[in-house]
Amino acid sequence: MNKKQLIAEFREQMADYLEEISGTSKSFKERATALNNRAEKIKEKYIEQILLIGDPIEIQLEHVLLATYVSYVVMLEYRNSVWPYEYMAFSRRIGELWEPMCKLPFEYPLNILSIYIPPNIEDVKNTLKKDINSLVSNLSIDEADKNKLLLYYQSIWALIDSGGNINLTLDLHFEQEEEFFDVDYKSGFSSNEKGNTNRLLLVASIYKSLPEIHNILMFLRQKEEENNHYLQILKKSGLWDVYCADEAYEKIREFTGFDIKNWMIENMDWHNDISPEFKKYLSDNDLLKYLTW
Fold first, then answer.
1. Cys-Cys link to 59, which of 55, 93, 131, 164 (CB 3.0-4.6 A)?
2. How far is it, in rounded angstroms, from Cα 154 to Cα 148?
3. Angle between helices 260-267 and 57-82 (to 10 degrees)
4. Which domain does 145 fall in, by range?
């Protein structure tokens, strides 16, 4: 199906489902969640059919991207029909949808790369503990000083642990040409990012301490000037390589071999693909500006 046909098919299935749940006792929030889940299931069914055809990987990726984009269009329309968006919810939702779309070229890569499972913090701590014990034991100092060094090391970990459990999982982890890449996707940095910034600095510093080569990257939807000073803290830390807007798309192309920016330009037209009713609602509430990828 072309885009128009696919949108029509998604809308037909979503309309049938909305009619089905309208006669239930579900609240408007429950209906919104149910509609989001149904749009996701419809998309997954189409993706299953796409993969069964067995086209070359680039054709598969293009079809998967189109089905994903169409599901977003219709999902937003029907969610808004039962629970109208306000600006915070809508801007956050657009950011949530951007991430999985931009991860698809890594799931269907044209270049050689492999997704890997990130390390567990306890495994990292145990490995580093063995390394530091081995290092200290071979130092030409007396036992009292060795014990003092080990105590300092344990105190540092105790201080780190006092901030809560550390999760080393970011949004994407892949290996390419014997190097590891650990990626965090963000829609943008707002005024309440201090705690998250400190966590990201800590996580990056732990990755940098590992014996393998780890490249810690951040892809942002917004242009650099649209973010606040917390982003600059990450950029100046020497721990994170930050790519904003078109720079992020170019980096995705470099890694995966697929030009997702060009695909978006050719296939995504939010303003004309959404329904006239939904477009009017977004325009009346000054929300159209968030449809910028």
1. 55
2. 10
3. 50
4. 121-161
